[in-house]
Amino acid sequence: MALMEVKDLTMLFGGITAVNHLDFEVAEGSITALIGPNGAGKTATFNCLTGFYVPTSGEILFEGESLVNVPPHKITDRGIIRTFQNVRLFNNLTVMDNVMSGCHSISKKFVGSALLRTPSERREEAEIKRIAEEALDYIGILDLKDEIAKNLPYGTQRRVEWARAIASKPKLLLLDEPAAGLNRQEKGELVELINRFRDELGMTVFLIEHDMGMVMKVAEKIIVINFGTKISEGTPKEVQDDPLVVEAYLGKEEEEEAV
Predict the structure, then answer these.
(1) Percentage, residues of the chain above pLDDT 90
(2) How confident is the model at residue 116 (pLDDT cuts 50, 70, 90)?
(3) What is the model's pLDDT at position 229?
(4) Least enclosed by CB within 10 Å: which of 53, 66, 90, 189?
């Protein structure tokens, strides 16, 4: 069953076509990857899915309801959470505060109760703290909860971002270049985490990634785009053997020389 359906999605910037009549589905409970050369339109697609861009045309359906013209915070409320290619943390806040900030979509408190520190507001704050600690423990960095984010190594900052994302308990988790800047061991741990997100937490995962070795290990379905257009879709093996994919990554001349 499709959790998300993208139909004829097009995104124009002046005379530049970033996404060109794109169609694909993300099945519920799947791990799906969107790949393509630099400038292929991957992040533009993610930005359309999460409300940062309003598509020029086309439709985006999540659980059968349109996401077009829905603002990002409302899309978050529907259960779609994303990370970014570059780590986006509150550098001067603690790890715990960063992860608690990701729980805003499950917070029900009103400004008045927050200012008055009502019993219900205090209970909710305690619950958010519990959820944040649970997420940090799941990612394996609970012992760093009181550290200031900017003082952490890059790979650990990535983990804080993942903890913040899962703390909001998304139905669909979008990961934009999650392996960027990670070493080989960290990438292996990321593959394990992504599988656990799906298998243990019940999340559907949709990722953009340049590391083809990692994509082939973790993704069940791969969608390949080039110049905003889908050129291939299928299992890792099917995509890997597709001449159009080889040409897009290597170029026709290089491919012929390799043969």
Answers:
(1) 76
(2) low
(3) 96
(4) 66
pLDDT band for position 147 (cuts 50, 70, 90): very high
What 3 state SS string does 223-242 have? EEEECCEEEEEECHHHHHCC
**Cα–Cα dist 72/47, whole Å:** 9
Write down which residue in 137, 166, 195 finishes a domain. Answer: 166
Q: What is the CATH number of the domain that holds 32?
A: 3.40.50.300
Residue 179: domain span: 1-79+170-259
Mean pLDDT of the chain: 89
Q: What's the pTM?
A: 0.88
Query: Residue 254 pLDDT > 50, yes or no?
Result: no
How does residue 106 score in pLDDT terms, banded at 50, 70 and 90? low
84 in a structural domain: no
Domains held by the chain: number: 2
Predicted confidence band of residue 47 (pLDDT cuts 50, 70, 90): very high
- Asked which of 135, 166, 197 is the last residue of a domain, the reply is 166
